[in-house]
TrEMBL record:
The keyword Coiled coil applies. Keywords: Coiled coil. It is found in: Virion. It comes from Clostridium beijerinckii. It holds the Pfam family Phage_capsid. The lineage of its organism: Bacteria, Bacillati, Bacillota, Clostridia, Eubacteriales. InterPro entries: Phage_capsid (IPR024455), Phage_capsid-like_C (IPR054612). Residues 3-67 form a coiled coil. This is Phage capsid family protein. Residues 107-362 form the Phage capsid-like C-terminal domain.
Length: 364
């Protein structure tokens, strides 16, 4: 019996237990609950067998590639194989070998991931400015270099013993959370399901996950920012001028929509635009010689009476974005209330504050 069939059978039994319990048929409910537990064990065994089988197929593929016997493999359409895996359709050994899985869900093919990355940039993703750390598991720790704890090197005279070098690092704990959406699959046909998934990834999923990522990033920045009292935007210029040389190269300005509009529309006494924000040859916008990036005003709550916020910081140093490798997955499931087939599209990530010395905040 397939895993999907076992899961469906379990869901039906769970509903049966609820109904029996509501009817006060306790003994029958307990007996059916035992069947649910047995199905849980069977599902777990099936998942482990499937994972073992997938590892064997990947090893077979690697051996074929070593021998140069890849002609048959090249004929496999990775996207169609992926959609078949999502639908639970029968697959050939070659198709199973090209579909990557994580947490018993099919991983989005590279062509989807590349397109998703570009779309997120179009939705104003802040991820690209963070220090992106690929991880291969959902939780663990990662040593982070601490520049404030590592001093200067000492002069070494001729004949002196070179001292041992020891970088000071801090173990940062991470735990990747799941974020995503569910979509209806309008058809069991592979071509139609492929369109359903592609449309969802390119629209709803890209926009929703970008907003979720940006919210977590801005919240991490805001929670670790040093407030600077200011009466106008010139305080931001002063902050940037006084930034440490070690962080100045990567310095950027983050602002909400109102802050961007203030700088963009600032005029001198003669009513001429001051051109505080300029566009570089790379297409990016700059303020005071450093890139300025706008985020959705709803992502942060300001003090009463304040409408504008500016953050000056080195994002690479300040924000660590733990990105689960092969972490964007699609998994099909049944909605028993409406008797429809659906798919969940999930990605796994965690966002932490790193070295926060550069984060300065102004509210106006």
């Amino acid at each position: 019996m397939k895993i999907e069939e076992l899961r469906q059978q379990k869901a039906e039994k769970v509903e049966e237990v609820r109904k029996l319990n509501q009817e006060n048929k306790i003994e029958e409910a307990e007996k059916t609950l035992e069947e649910v537990r047995a199905l849980d064990k069977q599902i777990k065994i099936s998942e482990e067998l499937e994972a073992e089988e997938m590892r064997d197929l990947q090893n077979q593929k690697a051996k074929k590639e070593e021998r140069g016997d890849v002609n048959k493999m090249e004929k496999v359409n990775e996207t169609r194989a992926f959609v078949k895996a999502v639908l639970g359709n029968k697959m050939t050994d070659e198709e199973r070998a090209v579909v990557k899985t994580t947490d018993n869900s099919a991983v989005l093919p590279s062509q989807y991931i590349n397109r998703l990355t570009e779309l997120k940039k179009g939705f104003g993703s802040l991820k690209q400015y963070c220090d992106i750390i690929p991880v291969t598991k959902n939780e663990g720790s990662m040593p982070i270099f601490d520049p404030e704890q590592n001093g200067m090197l000492k002069d070494i005279a001729e004949g002196d013993v070179i001292p041992d070098g020891k970088l000071v690092t801090t173990d940062m704990q991470f735990k990747c959370k799941k974020v995503g959406i569910k979509i209806p699959l309008s058809s069991e046909l592979i071509d139609d399901a492929e369109i359903d998934i592609e449309n969802a990834v390119n629209s709803s999923f890209a926009e929703s996950t970008t907003l979720t990522e940006n919210y977590s990033i801005v919240q991490a920045i805001d929670a670790n920012a040093t407030d600077v009292t200011a009466t106008d935007y010139t305080a931001l210029e002063d902050i940037m001028a006084k930034a440490l040389p070690t962080v100045k190269a990567g310095l950027i300005t983050l602002t909400n929509v109102e802050g961007y509009a203030l700088l963009k529309n600032m005029k001198d006494k003669q009513g001429r635009n001051m051109n505080l924000i300029t566009t570089g040859g790379d297409g990016k916008e700059y303020f005071n010689g450093k890139e300025i990036v706008t985020f959705d005003s709803s992502l942060v709550t300001l003090a009463e009476g304040k409408t504008i916020v500016f953050y000056s910081l080195n994002m690479k140093e300040a924000i660590k974005f733990f990105d689960r490798s092969n972490g964007t997955t699609v998994n099909r499931w049944n909605d028993y209330d409406t008797d429809t087939k659906k798919a969940s599209i999930l990605e796994r990530l965690d966002i932490k504050a790193g070295i926060t010395r550069s984060i300065k905040k102004i509210e106006l």
